[in-house]
Every structure is written in C-alpha cells, then in structure tokens.
Design brief:
about 80 residues, mainly alpha, 3 helices, elongated
Length: about 80
C-alpha cells in the first residue's frame, strides 16, 4: 500500500516539473514576458527550497526500500 503512495507522489512531482518546463518552452516560443517570468520565478523558488526534488527523492527511496525488502511497512 505504501509502495503505491510513493508512486503517486513521484507521478505528481513529475507532473509539476513537466508543467513548469512547458511554461518555459511555450513562453520562449511566444516571447511572453509573463510566462518566462513565471518560469524563472518557479525555477528560482525550486532552487532555493528544493522541496519538490526532496519529496521525489524521498518517495523513490521509500519505494526502493519496500521493493527490496519485500515487506509491507504498514503491517509491522
């Protein structure tokens, strides 16, 4: 059960990162200062907080531990 939760977290983190990347690409194509500013601001916030990357890394570590041990941590 916890394995699936970590998978959903990884999917959500990837989706957020994909949306930010799309905003940057679309803003560059349209030469939109608003979209490029939003993308730049989001990247700077991610750089200094690193929360979204840490959440993804933590979910990946939990998934690897659960798969390698073969036990369900909720049933302990």
């Amino acid at each position: 059960m916890l394995y699936y939760s970590s998978v959903y977290i990884l999917i959500a983190v990837g989706a957020v990162m994909m949306v930010v990347g799309f905003l940057g690409c679309y803003g560059a194509i349209q030469e939109s200062q608003c979209l490029l500013g939003t993308n730049c601001h989001t990247k700077i916030v991610e750089l200094f907080t690193n929360k979204i990357y840490l959440i993804g890394i933590a979910a990946l570590v939990v998934a690897v531990i659960i798969v390698s041990t073969g036990t369900d941590l909720l049933m302990l």
